[in-house]
């Protein structure tokens, strides 16, 4: 069975964007983080937002991105079960 994971990353200094990526890789170390990051870049299942500005105005956009990623995970799981 395959489980989707949501990897959230941010920097401590506020200089980098916060990113959410849907992945099938459980992130437990630098190597699995790199694998999840590569998967997100390959599938486009990454949503980034800045720490600045009105984040509430972008909630709909974030929801759409995560729903798209969820649909893509469902397609992946069905393909792997075949």
| Element string (H = helix, E = strand) | EEHEH
The rough form would be described as flat
Helix proportion? 40-55%
By DSSP (H or I, 4+ residues per run), the number of helices equals 2
Task: Give the strand order of the largest sheet, numbering strands 1, 2, ... along the chain.
Answer: 1-2-3
Radius of gyration: 14 Å
Mean pLDDT: 81
Decide which structural class fits the backbone.
alpha+beta
Task: Report the major sheet.
Answer: 3 strands, antiparallel
Strand content: 15-25%
Distance between the termini: 12 Å
Total strand segments: 3
What does this entry look like structurally?
With 82 residues, the protein is α+β, with helices and mostly antiparallel strands. 45% of the residues lie in helices and 18% in strands. The protein has 2 helices and 3 strands. The chain has helices at 30-43, 59-81; strands at 5-9, 18-23, 46-49. The chain has a 3-stranded antiparallel beta sheet. A hairpin with an 8-residue loop joins strand 1 and strand 2 (18-23). The longest helix has 23 residues, at 59-81. The chain is flat and about 45 Å long.
